[in-house]
Amino acid sequence: MRWRAILLQYCFLLVTCLLTALEAVPIDIDKTKVKSTQPVDSAKIEPPDTGLYYDEYLKQVIDVLETDNHFREKLQKADIEEIKSGRLSKELDLVSHHVRTRLDELKRQELARLRMLIKAKLDSHQNTGIDHHALLKQFDHLNHLNPDKFESTDLNMLIKAATSDLEHYDKTRHEEFKKYEMMKEHERREYLKTLSEEKRKEEESKFEEMKKKHENHPKVNHPGSKDQLKEVWEETDGLDPNDFDPKTFFKLHDVNSDGFLDEQELEALFTKEVDANRDRLVTLEEFLKATEKKEFLEPDSWETLDQQQFFTEEELREYEKLISLQENELKKKADELQKQKEELQRQHDQLEAQKLEYHQAVQQMEQKKLQQEIPPSGPGGELKFQPHV
User: Fold this and answer.
1) Cβ within 8 Å of residue 240, ≥6 positions away
2) How far is CA 171 from CA 5, 14, 225, 241, in A?
3) How far is CA 10 from CA 83, 157, 167, 385, in A?
4) Is residue 252 helix, strand or coil?
5) Which comes out higher in pLDDT, residue 318 or 72?
6) pTM for the model
7) Is the dihedral of CA 106, 107, 112, 115 positive or negative?
């Protein structure tokens, strides 16, 4: 496996297969005239964002390391355990001076960026306090005790930090998905409780039938494995799987007979993992070497979602207890809010009544005042004025 596919593919939750960040050979170019070590101009393929706060630094370090032929060759032959263990980090001592200088520069830039971030956080938490331990954790992906030089320790720390952070993220996502699956099962069971006995048995029968159908679906072979290619050999090429031969298989799927499996031909086989020099072209030599690897002969298990048991009955019961507690807590809060609403309504009604009473009292006072200001009338309805003494 290549360096980027090993490190960053592992980081991307062991699912996303990263394409090369180097320039690739376009399909419409005469590939027989292109040297694999000299890729021609083409759009650069950017790997996806890992979501790490040091994502850009991680990708820049990898890009620079890939420019060193010695280091690149070592990484192409390495497996994930060699990279994670830090043994390959020692190869950094053998890279060119230009690469070391560029890595030193990247490290200084990253440290400067982190200092700016930390200063901004400190300024924004002057009166509220801040977790200094959490701030120091931001240096886990590099050796800040040596701020000017990028050493093997820095590469080792970067790899370990990236794999650890993304393994944690993967675990979190797994837990979220497990909760989602448990919620679906909980809702299904709650729905069954609302049905009559006859309807409940009918629904249970349908569920078990669907579950059995999913469990008995044909085996899905791991893409790029020997079994998957033998499947293509049998179903697409119409040949006996017992006669599978990698060299013949290559020639059969080199549609334009140019001695390469190009991007379109690889996509037809559901695999790009055998492109060792990452020029998006696979030679016969690369293909045959790939068929000798353990990953080809003994691929990891490839299970569909319905074949995996995401939770146990005990975990589901614990989850339902948690849901029940949360529902009770929400009901309690809802009852308290209802009481508060009723009390506020009572106070509102009381204030409205007081307001009405006040307006009535004011109106009565105004009427009395008007009555006192009008002089009494004499016989015949004329006004009678009292003479001033």
Assistant:
1) 234
2) 21, 12, 27, 39
3) 11, 16, 9, 109
4) helix
5) 318
6) 0.48
7) positive
